[in-house]
Model the fold of this input.
Amino acid sequence: MTGKTLYDKLWDAHVVRREEDGTALLYIDRHLVHEVTSPQAFEGLRLAGRKPWRTDTVVAVPDHNVPTRDRDQGVTDPVARTQLETLQENVNTFGITFFPMSDVRQGIVHVIGPEQGATLPGMTVVCGDSHTSTHGAFGALSMGIGTSEVEHVLATQCLLQKKMKNMRVSVDGPVGPGVTAKDIVLAIIGRIGTAGGTGCAIEFAGEAIRDLSMEGRMTVCNMAIEAGARAGMVAVDDTTIDYVKDRPFAPKGEDWERAVAAWRELHSDADAVFDHEVHIDAADIVPQVTWGTSPEMVVPVTDRVPDPAAAGDPVKARGMERALEYMGLQAGMPVTDIRLDKVFIGSCTNARLEDLRAAARVVEGRRVAEHIKLAMVVPGSGLVKQQAEREGLDRIFREAGFEWRDPGCSMCLAMNADRLEPGERCASTSNRNFEGRQGLGGRTHLVSPAMAAAAAVAGHFVDVRAL
Amino acid sequence: MEKFDKLTAVVMPLDRSNVDTDAIIPKQYLKSVKRTGFGPTLFDDWRYLDPGEPGMDHSQRRVNPDFVLNDPRYQGARILLARKNFGCGSSREHAVWALTDYGFRVVIAPSFADIFFGNSFKNGLLPVVLDEAIIDRLFEAVQAHPGYTLTVDLEDQVITTPSGESFPFEVEPFRRHCLLNGLDDIGLTLQHADEIRAYESRRRAEAPWLFDAGPRA
Done:
């Protein structure tokens, strides 16, 4: 008998029952909830006269719609306010743990789950948000789900699912200086494409992944969905356990010892077989910049904007032409000639403390370029913000000309007031460069925090390694 | 959930790969706390020339005559023909609600993103996967013949063209059963409540820290 992959182990530990066709009832240990994808689920429960199965597994927080400044004035958008009030009413009705906007623990759902220790190794974690893949960094099986599934998990503590395929992406060897987790994951997506992991759970492995902090691993797993995989994950090691220890929701005392012993098993066996294996040489990865309207449209900062004529496949070439037109770029131009209007440092991909430190290191003693209309830092949580301020990062950003905001999803998806105007071009540490993602007609380039900071200072993309 | 068994309807072609759920329904409409009313803002950024906001009378907006949804020959379409990786990106189920609210019951594509694919079945929208070569031929046929229809039969798992050519497709048996009968899968799962409780007591013995899982003193 061959060994099991990490995903096999997590799957097997959570199967409650199986249908004849292999569809399983999968038990869910942690359910994270935010204001946008939950109201219809709670309403569904109420209409059917059902109650949540286990409220102790649920943690709720507002993040998508919250304002990132002038919070003392409340939420001025009446439609957003109704949605936020609806979440408040639902958590009150059902007795769910909740971090409101006034709580220092409020923040982006995928930042606060790990920060609170609500995300633990070996768990199944779901949330009505595709970037739930983030939590797989802990050796957890974590997946984004739709609102009907949110309701299903609330009502039954289970998800109906078929087992996915096993895929392993190994990033072999160490990365060079100035190359971050964001560059690693963008390079992976550039290699396998936005549908490369469809139908798969991806385990990220190899020296470059093992070398990452938990925050770096979260950045990589966060964007598994941008490679098409609903779940991304990394095996448990000392880095994982050290991060989790003593967090508010983490087990304590004897439970902690038992848990750690169990978590030590959360890795793929040496003889485990994967359906797909991809190897990438870490030494080949340089800082990445997306040029188009899909995360797979990505090149090294040292490169040029690609030419659709070289694409081969006509459907792909048409997509590239369309993207170039939308982005207002010419094939063949150097990436470093792309001039920016706005810079956004934030999102569930890159708004943790290490991200802010990396950006601040680049910014310190420099000024945001004259023509940049807005450069903003949106910390991932109130606690990230508080710690950053203790370290004086807010001062560095402010003195350089950045705005220092309150935590939330902000301009990653522009549901609140933070957005691009038509035609504006942004260096963004977020995860999606889709048409209109950051505002109707807005143009998004995805980069690491250090690269975004460098672009803010230069006013155009630069290779952060040369600064 | 509205059940689905068989449908003959006009086909609308959407000739782009990687159509993401942000494009299907932009973020500003996600502020709604309802499941209905998303049809008029389906493909909002492509469909209209002026920016849209929740609460607007969308019938008064300027439509983009170049976008396929506004082409008179595809009015009344209930089958969407698409390219690969349809529905990628955000998990927002509002994308499916927008498609069904507009009137679509079937999306045919060479591949779908996983979350969108699952969301479709929960809302009576049938996603059908066909080979890329067949999809190419269907695009040609739709463009060549105004009013082109297809018949989609979920019971027999086959798509039939007006000329009688047929293409079989596969749907997982459990999902097919639920869709054919319009079943509420929460009700089905709760029939196994005893098994869920039995799992919980087993699991509590081996991993007690996963229970009483709120913040700890």
